[in-house]
Automatic annotation (TrEMBL):
It comes from Microbacterium sediminicola. The keyword Aminoacyl-tRNA synthetase does not apply. Keywords: FAD, Flavoprotein. This is NAD(P)H-quinone dehydrogenase. Residues 13-343 form the FAD/NAD(P)-binding domain. NCBIfam families: PRK07845.1 (NF005883). It comes from the Bacteria. Belongs to the class-I pyridine nucleotide-disulfide oxidoreductase family. Its cofactor is FAD. The lineage of its organism: Bacteria, Bacillati, Actinomycetota, Actinomycetes, Micrococcales. InterPro entries: FAD/NAD-bd_sf, FAD/NAD-binding_dom, FAD/NAD-linked_Rdtase_dimer_sf, Pyr_nuc-diS_OxRdtase, Pyr_nucl-diS_OxRdtase_dimer. SUPFAM superfamilies: FAD/NAD(P)-binding domain, FAD/NAD-linked reductases, dimerisation (C-terminal) domain.
């Protein structure tokens, strides 16, 4: 493979504010194209995604998955016993050392940050630790000294803003970092919470509720809507609710938290209907706010939303031609993978390289509950609402031979294809490692493959992926040779 580089009359300069997934990928892409790149980051390369969000939370979830695997090993004939004083076998309990778990996950986050920093340095990126903002002339002003006393001014041809977002805080439920927590503060706990109350049943709330339930904590999940994950596939949400209920989680739908207060070593959550829920800890998972305040973007001419998000188009460009933005601070799609793609796309577009505008319907998303929920493209609700003329086929994982071998009873594969042509336009997978299993469906959506073309791909037997080909075969379309354009 030959890598082509763009040639310029002079070296292009790129300044990036924020070293999260978007800023990191933008810096690498710009360096690859021969630019002089400066990245400004205040907390550590990788940003909150690596330091306090994605990496530590998914490490916690991996630990919870391991705990479940051990606890359920007996169903597969694997039994753990210890000999008692009488010589009779005793069945040991699975114990969670949360202090050690949190120590490990924070260490992994720090190591990932250092690895990313090393990659940037190796690529020739200049990294400045400090707070960056944009002035009226579109230069970056960096505060590097304590108390904002020392400043650097960076002029660049292209600016990329990738400052991420922070947990939303409510005045009626102010986090104290000990008993009332945001998702960035959970890792300070030394012992497993006796009773964790999770306020918010979106992706973040569902993931942590799932993880702590599987670690052995008593969990109550408060949802203002009628079900968990209100914005996701209804069948997937139903599977997850069934798993939660079976695991002993207390689900409170159509309940809005009016206030959360600390009472000594306990928390008291009062709902809007007057119901009181008491627990040892409370996680507030009520959304996030972009870290765009004080960056000078409005004065620089950058259009913002009412919520403070940066308006960008499908190539991550803002209303100012040489200013781009990526990640959760934009109004596009709050996923780390999307931030990375936006960062690369922004630089490629700025440099006149080949760019394929981002399309939301081709973005793969995953929810790291147990079981995982992965989605791509149009959903069954879109078919029902007439937004896409499609057909839907769902195949339970319980009938898959590999699933039976692994003891998997929950989950399914769902494919959505266009009526007539059979072009795959969406999919949902619920099950272990759904984040991995969704990839072939994502390729089918991206390349506009038909269900027949997808079904012709050989899947190893036995494997969970055979459920994808089986679902595709069940949607066989007669006399369709090529996908529609």
């Amino acid at each position: 493979m030959v890598l082509m580089s763009l040639s310029f009359e002079r070296t292009q300069t790129v300044a990036i504010i924020g070293g999260g997934p978007g800023g990191y990928e933008a810096a690498l892409a710009a360096a690859q194209l021969g630019a002089d790149v400066t990245l400004v980051e205040r907390a550590g390369v990788g940003g909150s995604a690596v330091m306090t969000d994605v990496v530590p939370s998914k490490t916690l979830i991996a630990t919870a998955d391991a705990a479940v695997a051990i606890a359920q090993a007996g169903d597969l004939g694997v039994q753990l016993f210890a000999r008692g004083e009488s010589g009779k076998p005793l069945k040991p309990e699975v114990a969670i050392n949360l202090a050690q778990v949190n120590k490990r996950l924070l260490a992994l986050a720090g190591q990932q940050s250092e690895d990313m920093r090393a990659s940037l340095v190796s690529a020739g990126v200049n990294i400045i630790e400090g707070h960056g903002r944009v002035d009226d002339d579109h230069a970056v002003i960096v505060s590097t000294g304590p108390g904002g006393t020392d400043f650097d001014r960076i002029e660049a041809d292209t600016l990329v803003v990738s400052v991420g977002a922070s947990p939303r805080e409510l005045q009626s439920a102010k986090p104290d970092g000990e008993r009332i927590l945001t998702w960035t503060q959970l890792y300070n706990m030394k012992t497993l919470p006796e009773h964790l109350i999770v306020v918010g049943s979106g992706v973040t709330g569902a993931e942590f509720a799932s993880a702590y339930m599987n670690l052995g904590a008593k969990v109550t999940l408060i949802s203002s809507r009628d079900r968990v994950l209100p914005g996701e596939d209804e069948d997937a949400a139903q599977v997850l609710e069934s798993v939660f209920a079976r695991g002993g989680m207390n689900l409170l739908p159509k309940s809005r938290a009016k206030s959360v207060v600390r009472n000594g070593d306990a928390v008291v959550v009062t709902l809007s209907d007057g119901t009181v829920v008491e627990g040892s800890h409370c996680l507030m998972a009520v959304g996030s706010i972009p870290n765009t305040a004080g960056l000078g973007l409005e004065d620089a001419g950058v259009q913002m939303t009412v919520s403070g998000h940066i308006r960008v188009n499908r190539v991550a460009r803002t209303s100012v031609p040489n200013i781009y933005a990526a990640g959760d601070c934009t109004n596009f799609f709050p996923l780390a993978s999307v931030a990375s793609m936006q960062g690369r796309t922004a630089v490629f577009h700025a440099f006149g390289d080949v760019v394929i505008p981002l399309e939301k319907r081709r973005i793969t998303a995953n929810i790291f509950t147990a079981p995982e929920i992965a989605t791509i493209g149009w959903g069954e609700a879109d078919v029902a609402a007439g937004r896409v003329n499609g057909v839907v086929h769902k195949l339970p994982l319980a009938g898959n031979p590999r699933a039976k071998m692994m003891g998997i009873t929950d989950g399914f594969v769902k494919l959505i294809a266009r009526q007539g042509s059979g072009t795959v336009v969406g999919g949902v997978i619920v099950g272990p490692r759904a984040s991995e299993l969704i990839y072939p469906v994502a390729i089918a959506v991206e390349r506009r493959l038909t269900v027949d073309q997808l079904s012709r791909v050989f899947a190893a037997y036995p494997s969970l992926t055979t459920s994808i080909t089986d679902a595709a075969r069940a949607m066989h379309i007669v006399d369709v040779d090529e996908p529609e354009e």
